[in-house]
Amino acid sequence: MTIVSLVLFYLFFGLVQGLTEPIPISSSGHLVIIQDLFNLKLESLTFEVLVNFASLLAVLVIYRQDIIRLATNGLTFLFSKEKKTPAVKQDFFFIVYLMIATIPAGVIGLLFEDAIAETFAGASMVGLTLIVTGIALFIIRNLKGQKSDRDLSLKDAIIVGLSQSVALIPGISRSGATIVAAMLLGMKQETALRFSFLLYIPVSLGTFILKVSDIFTEGAGEMIIPYAVAFVAALVATYFSLRWFMNIMERGNLIYFSIYCFVVGSFAFFIL
């Protein structure tokens, strides 16, 4: 490929990653389908780690106020005896539950990620798992939970954490799996959304730290510009896609994502 072709190639995949990462339609599944459909090939999983980190930065920007509040109140709970208000205690335990929910995906990913990727490789398998995602979204399409941040429990954290580990399978959306689990547990849409995307932060950050040396090695030479373009594209696309998804959640229109997963999943399973 020429440098221009490389830039356009990685711009395209960066946009796909950014647009599909926050919404419950599986970014990894779409990358597999597009590569099969257009006979394209991403040579390294390092690219996915890079654009996932770009998506992480977008999530950090959008949820920056929640992150600052949680960090402040968490430290206050630990180091101040006089200021342990109910709000401070609530935020401290919210952090604890996020940490607990991170463990299943982290452990399963380290032990079985390669085996999972190999077992569920190919567009037809991704099509099947997208259909499963569509069914799950259809089930919760009209749910209106009552649990807010203060009502979360250890059981909620463990179940949502386990659901995130299921999303290691290509075609199972991470945001979809965690939001479905959260809403089946009775969480309000706002709480489910917040918990899901704050839970995305430690797993994505941990993956990036483990792979960062490979990124700089593979990003040397002619790949610097294509990788940089993909990174910026994924960052911007994720920001606007997540903002859009938050509005969709407020209006309770998850049925559209369910239909989309059925259509794309059926296409990938029966045609590709």
Automatic annotation (TrEMBL):
It catalyses: di-trans,octa-cis-undecaprenyl diphosphate + H2O = di-trans,octa-cis-undecaprenyl phosphate + phosphate + H(+). The chain crosses the membrane at residues 42-63, 92-113, 119-140, 192-212, 224-242, 254-271. One of its GO terms (molecular function) is undecaprenyl-diphosphatase activity. Pfam families: BacA (PF02673). The keyword RNA-binding does not apply. It is found in: Cell membrane. GO terms for biological process: cell wall organization; peptidoglycan biosynthetic process; regulation of cell shape; response to antibiotic. It is an enzyme of class 3 (hydrolase). Keywords: Antibiotic resistance, Cell membrane, Cell shape, Cell wall biogenesis/degradation, Hydrolase, Membrane, Peptidoglycan synthesis, Transmembrane, Transmembrane helix. InterPro entries: UppP. Catalyzes the dephosphorylation of undecaprenyl diphosphate (UPP). Confers resistance to bacitracin. Bacitracin is thought to be involved in the inhibition of peptidoglycan synthesis by sequestering undecaprenyl diphosphate, thereby reducing the pool of lipid carrier available. PANTHER family: UNDECAPRENYL-DIPHOSPHATASE. Belongs to the UppP family. This is Undecaprenyl-diphosphatase. It comes from Halolactibacillus halophilus. The gene is uppP.
